[in-house]
Design goal:
Helices cover 33% and strands 24% of the residues. By secondary structure, it is α/β, with parallel strands linked by helices. The chain has a domain at 20-89 and 189-275 and 282-290: Rossmann fold. A 6-stranded mixed beta sheet has the order 6-7-8-3-9-10, with helices on both faces. A 4-stranded antiparallel beta sheet has the order 2-1-4-5, with helices on one face. Helix 5 (125-136) runs parallel beside helix 8. The longest helix has 18 residues, at 202-219.
Length: 290
């Protein structure tokens, strides 16, 4: 079996006419020092199998907490309260217990921001990928071979050697590839990529985006791409949902959003995309009430 077949084997599910993921009226509230802060306000999303949805917005708009809510990675009450429905493969994950939700975390894999912090510094990269394989693919007999396949899949040179490396021995781009390999080792149907190019230089950013695009097409998985950068979205995402102050302010096909954005916030985000040769010195702003 080829590497792509091994890691990309689709699991049997419901009919293709149903969306893989449907989020309905998601609200997320945080509580601290007697005060309540609503981070996400009645957000609804749909993502079909094999498609890419980009959730775009500035820092603090609620993108990451929306992604974390999918597999219940947010704090428990009373620090945080989540309401609404999160339906994945026809199952309402919002009704499951903490123990029951663990079985779904391999099918919804997560690539976190700041891989230097997300990877455990005291364990080798191979050990951490192997842990994901044992947890989410208990039927795999040769775990070591599966680790090497995962590293090969993300284009890591000398995968046997890199499996023995510790995170601090890898560059930022290699750490990101290792994090993606760990996610793919679970053979997910949905990959949540949370700001996957944060902290990387422009050249490495382009390589990671190209890697994710290639893997999505080869493995046929759905991707929820969380980003503040419309430049990353173009040519990768099928659809875009623009998020501001915890709400979706605009959504649609990527090409349509990029060419004919309706909301002033969307237009401002697109106007912030750097253009080579441009002499503009000030980035556009919009009033807080818009």
């Amino acid at each position: 079996m080829s590497t792509g077949q091994s890691l990309g084997k689709k699991q049997e599910g419901l009919g293709s006419e149903l969306p893989l993921l449907r989020v309905e009226d998601l609200c997320i509230d945080f509580f601290a020092r007697g005060q309540q802060f609503r981070a996400v306000d009645r957000v609804s999303l749909e993502l079909e199998r094999g498609r890419v949805l980009a959730l775009v917005g500035e820092s603090g708009s609620g993108k990451s907490v929306t992604g974390l809510a999918l597999t219940r990675l947010l704090p428990d009450p009373p620090q945080c309260r989540v309401s609404g429905r999160i339906i994945f493969r026809g199952h309402d994950l919002s009704t499951l217990s903490r123990k029951a939700i663990r079985a779904w975390r391999g099918r919804i894999a997560y690539v976190f921001q700041e891989t230097g912090s997300a990877l455990n510094p005291v364990f080798s990269v191979g050990y951490q990928i192997a842990e994901a394989v044992r947890l989410h693919q208990p039927g795999v007999r040769d775990v070591r071979a599966e680790v090497v396949r995962a590293l090969e899949l993300v284009g890591m040179e000398n995968p046997q050697q890199r499996a023995e490396s510790y995170p601090h021995q890898l560059s930022g781009g290699m750490q990101q590839r290792a994090m993606i390999a760990m996610a793919l080792a679970c053979r997910p149907e949905l990959l949540v990529a949370d700001e996957p190019t944060t902290g990387l230089d422009v050249t490495i950013q382009a390589q990671i985006v190209e890697l994710l695009r290639d893997l999505q097409q080869r493995l046929g998985m759905a991707v929820l791409l969380i980003t503040h950068d419309f430049g990353v979205v173009s040519g990768f995402a099928d659809r875009v949902a623009v998020m501001r102050q915890g709400q979706i302010v605009e959504r649609g096909e990527t090409e349509h959003i990029l060419r004919q954005p309706r909301h002033p916030y969307t237009r401002a985000l697109i106007a912030c995309i750097p253009v080579l040769g441009s002499r503009r010195r000030r980035l556009p702003t919009i009033a807080s009430g818009q």
